[in-house]
Write a structure and sequence with these properties.
Shape: flat
Largest sheet: 8 strands, mixed
Oligomer: single chain
Number of helices: 28
Structural class: alpha/beta
Length: 994
């Protein structure tokens, strides 16, 4: 007789890795008959109290019958899942389908009993909550709509798991047992609960990497040089506050130290816990190291070793095995092929990277997938000359390399409520989960600025990313809709980040300009106009202006209610009595301090002294003798070193064995702060920041700290103004995000009728483009009328159609090469009578071929207006996207289209219409009659509702849509149906599959 598992294949797609409440990971998978020994071992480690809560009676051991029952499932009516760490069970959950009488049943019964058991050592880690999400998703897949659970009143932890899940519940009490019943369809509250748990778990998993209590470097060589030895030296030079260990299996007997750091042959030889391990050994030795770390209970790995997915198919498989092995032990990975991580917090001082100098502490969080770009960003942020002043430093830095596990999404979760980070800068070569990134970006941007530069090319070979069909420009537009400050270069990334790090957001686009150079002021004025700002006439203080003149002018400008920001321009003063750089910096600082609500920027020309003085006046580093009060002082100026990379170095990661760094001089003992080096821009004294730590249950980000005003200086007017323009747009987004609008309800929408029609049409096949009649019928159910177009294969048919529609009419060729191409002559408009219609019909056939080739149609004339196009598409990675633009060359040749994620609110529709560059044509440009944009916005909202309500509608095109002074006319439409792509954002929490 066949077993249940022989009748149903093993559902491998139910396997998943999850991040738990404490930041560790676990593997969730179906329980099979091969798990009998694991189940018995697991049950023996559960306390008698937990067993009593599970079975409502003393149950010291499982019988053979119990073991068989709990390991043999049909994966339909009876399902069991286990959470595992290191291959061993730490928790189980199962459901049994039941009928209305409470007895075992099969489909179509849609209710099941559910029960959990969590090992005592792992209770409180959120294991049961994660298992409930996964068993709920499995049950929905198998046609189960409700769960029932019976719980003893004293089992408050399990009752809380059910009540906190966010599902609609019904509770009863009978015979001393609490009975809970709840539906499994995701609700707004259940999704909010799930995403809040996701944020806390993923943030803590990153926090465990960035704030370890102990670090081991595996691959630290016995002789100076090499990657491992360099990382060990960098950790020491940074003054890491925890304990350090060096690990090298080739160490001879009797060697117990390397550079004063305790040395071991294996991680398992270390006494006490190890939180973070930096792996710097050849790729073929990494699995042995990972297993050693897992057995010792290490929490996270930074793998700087190369030779993985960036090296080809073999390396890609090696990378998959690395991730699988690490996750089996509950560890997270930065890398492989990573540059490393940095945390400048004074109570951590971690430099587990290949950067030989730790950046100055500050308020900027920095993420880069590429190690080379990470080096460039660190260098630019802290460079004194040749660019912006180094007026602020870094809170944390992550360079993820191949990004096999920890990604930008994880780090965003951490930075969202990190009290030490005010601004987030990210360099992304690819976005692995655009739908999730957009959701996280929107939430983060509502609390603190998020500036992103994204490579426009294909994803690097080391990155496993979901394919998107959206053009790069569309993705950029969607990121901006989510509040992301999207810039084009890393120079703009740094310029914008430095402005936002300490300057307030501008209240509007009005800009005052003052300085001692009329020419530089005019350049700044023109730059403001080019960026869409509203500059006031520049104030020329003349080249003889003193520091007092600058202070008075800036004070007056800041007090002026007609300006929202001030740009100060300055050129070198020559001659006796000329203004000293330090005096000018102090004058600007004191004036800015009087009106702290408006941003101030400086454009300087060949004024290295002013740049340093501005930074010195309000530096992030404490002066000598500064105490806990946080008094600031001047950081040493200089050019940063190359951070272990040079021309020709691979973009990410370093090959093991390469000498990437010289050993730093004057290395302090572990736990001691380093002494600054003269002549190095990274050698600034440590910043003293408040050491407040976010509460583990924090749900809202802290308010930005009220620190000193740091005035950024720029070497070119265009760079300063571009950064200011981005700040203005971001401030506007913040104001609008406070009231995102609503999705209107329309009484004439027939949602159920549309669903029935779609189901009937899809019954014909997996995907199809609807015919004209079917398209008009479906769109009509959502109040979208399409003007009737009657085929006219002969002149007589054209005449009959015109009589039915009424003159005047339009005659159009609908062949693919002529559709929507009035410029080619395939359209004849305003045909007032039969004679004109027959003549036009003959002209078309003479010019372009037979009617069979032309596919002519006759359509009633629409009111004159502006031709536009409306499109909606379901992208498998980003989701549903609504697009709008003017028909013809504007959208096809110039790409002048605006995009919004579905569902679109009324505010989104309003901004969508106004976002295209050619929008003035809709609002009476050059004396033309303004068109009915409210009717256009309603059309956009109806299309959005159609796509949002019915994910089977994978593409909609309305072209042209003529927007007249009164009303809109849809003259052409097409709709494509297909089974909807899977939505992973509505399912249980999982890490990306590998």
């Amino acid at each position: 007789m066949q077993s249940a598992q022989e009748r149903h294949e093993y559902p491998a797609h139910w396997e998943a890795d999850v991040v738990l409440r404490d930041g560790g990971t676990a593997r969730v998978r179906p329980i099979t008959a091969d798990d009998a020994e694991r189940l018995v071992s697991f049950y023996e480690q559960v306390s008698d109290e937990s067993k009593y809560y599970r079975f409502f009676a003393p149950y010291p051991r499982l019988s053979a019958k119990d073991v068989h029952r709990f390991t043999h499932h049909d994966f339909v009516d009876r399902v069991g899942l286990a959470a595992t760490v290191g291959g061993e069970f730490i928790a189980t959950v199962r459901y049994d389908r039941i009928g209305p009488d409470g007895l075992p049943a099969t489909g179509p019964a849609d209710e099941a009993e559910v029960a959990f058991l969590v090992q005592d050592a792992h209770q409180g880690r959120g294991v049961a909550s994660a298992l409930l999400e996964h068993i709920g998703a499995v049950a929905r897949e198998r046609g189960i709509r409700r769960f029932a659970a019976e719980v003893l009143p004293a089992n408050s932890k399990m009752i809380k798991v059910f009540t906190d899940a966010g599902y609609t519940q019904k509770r009863s009490f009978e015979d001393g047992v609490v009975r809970l019943e709840f539906g499994l369809e995701p609700t707004e509250r259940s999704l909010a609960v799930q995403r809040a748990r996701e944020q806390r778990a993923e943030a803590r998993s990153v926090r465990r990497l960035l704030a370890p209590g102990s670090v081991a470097v595996v691959g630290a060589g016995r002789a100076p040089g090499g990657v491992g030895r360099a990382v060990l030296a960098n950790l020491r030079a940074a003054g890491f506050t925890g304990t350090l260990h060096a690990v090298n299996k080739a160490l001879p007997e009797g060697v117990e130290e390397l550079d004063g750091v305790p040395a071991h042959r294996f991680v398992r030889d270390i006494e006490g816990p190890v939180d973070l391990v930096v792996v710097a050994v050849p790729a073929d030795e990494v699995p042995e190291v990972v297993a050693d770390c897992g057995e010792h209970g290490v929490q996270g790995l930074v793998v700087v070793s190369a030779g993985y997915a960036e090296s080809g198919p073999d390396g890609r498989e090696r990378q998959r095995e690395l991730v699988r092995l690490a996750r089996a032990y509950g560890m997270r990975i930065v890398g492989p092929n990573a540059f490393g991580i940095i945390n400048t917090a004074p109570d951590v001082r971690l430099n587990a990277s290949l950067a030989p100098e730790t950046p100055r502490p500050g308020r900027i969080g920095l993420f880069a997938q590429s190690g080379a770009i990470g080096v460039a960003l660190l260098s630019r942020l802290h460079r004194r000359g040749g660019g912006v002043t180094g007026v602020t430093g870094v809170s944390t830095f992550v360079s993820s390399g191949n990004r096999a596990d920890v990604s930008g999404n994880d780090v965003l979760q951490y930075w969202y409520d990190d009290p030490e980070t005010d601004v987030v800068l990210m360099y992304l070569e690819s976005i692995g989960n655009p739908r999730k990134f957009t959701r996280l970006a929107r939430r983060t941007a509502a609390a603190k600025p998020l500036v992103v530069v994204q490579g426009a090319g294909s994803a690097p070979q080391g990155h496993a990313v979901r394919a998107t069909r959206l053009p790069h420009a569309t993705v950029s537009a969607l990121l901006r809709q989510a509040g992301v400050i999207r810039v084009a270069t890393i120079t703009e990334l740094v310029d914008t980040g430095l402005l936002l790090a300490r300057q307030p957001l501008p209240a509007g686009p009005r800009v005052a300009i003052l300085g001692n150079s009329e020419s530089l002021g005019l350049l700044t004025y023109d730059a403001c106009l080019s960026e869409g700002l509203r500059p006031l006439p520049p104030l020329d203080l003349t080249t003889g202006a003193s520091a007092e003149d600058f202070r008075d002018a800036l004070t007056h400008a800041l007090a002026d209610d007609t300006c929202d920001a001030v740009v100060v321009t300055a050129i070198p003063a020559i001659g006796e009595g000329s203004t000293d750089d330090a005096d000018l910096a102090e004058a600007l600082r004191s004036a800015a301090a009087r009106v702290p609500a408006k941003p101030v920027l400086v454009v300087h020309v060949e004024l290295g002294g002013l740049a340093e003085a501005l930074s010195a006046a309000m530096s992030t580093g404490p002066q000598a003798g500064a105490g806990a009060s946080g008094t600031t002082g001047t950081a040493t100026a200089g050019t940063p070193e190359a951070h272990g990379t040079s021309t020709g170095t691979p973009a990410r990661g370093v090959t093991p064995g390469a000498d990437v760094s010289r050993a730093p001089a004057a290395v302090p003992a572990p736990g001691q702060a380093p002494a600054p080096r003269a002549g190095n821009a990274f050698a600034a004294a440590w910043t003293v920041h408040p050491t407040s730590v976010a509460s583990p249950d924090r749900t809202a980000p802290p308010a930005p700290p009220q620190g000193p005003r740091l005035i950024p200086a720029y070497p070119a007017a265009e760079r300063a103004v571009r950064a200011l323009a981005e700040a203005v747009k971001y401030a506007q987004w913040r104001r609008e995000a406070a009231d995102p609008g609503k999705v209107p309800e329309y009484d004439d929408i027939d949602e159920k009728g549309a669903a029935r029609q779609i189901d009937g049409l899809l019954a014909r096949g997996q995907g199809l483009t609807l015919g004209t009649e079917e398209t008009c019928e479906l769109l009509g159910r959502y109040g979208i009328g399409v003007r009737r177009a009657i085929p006219a294969p002969t002149p007589e048919d054209a005449v009959d159609a015109a009589r039915a529609l009424g003159y005047p009419v339009a005659l159009k060729a609908t062949a693919p090469h002529l559709r929507h191409r009035a410029d080619l002559g395939g359209v004849r408009l305003d045909l007032a009578d039969e004679e004109q219609l027959r003549r036009s019909y003959g002209e078309l056939t003479d010019l372009f071929g037979t009617p069979r080739e032309l596919r002519p149609v006759v359509q009633a004339m629409a009111p004159r207006g502006v031709d536009t196009v409306v499109r909606a598409v379901i992208d498998p990675a980003a989701g549903a996207v609504l697009s709008f633009g003017l028909a013809g060359a504007a959208s096809q040749l110039l790409g002048d289209m605006a995009h919004r994620l579905v569902p679109v609110t009324d505010r989104d529709a309003t901004s969508l219409v106004r976002s295209i560059r050619t929008a003035p044509l809709l609002f009476g440009w050059r004396g033309s009659t303004p068109v009915d944009t409210p009717a256009l916005e309603e059309l956009l909202l109806r299309v959005s509702r159609l796509v949002d309500d019915h994910p089977e509608v994978v593409a909609v095109t309305l072209e042209p849509v003529v927007v007249a002074p009164h009303g809109v006319s849809v003259l052409g439409a097409s709709v494509r149906l297909a089974p909807p792509p899977a939505r992973d954002d509505l399912g249980p929490r999982t890490l990306p599959a590998y």
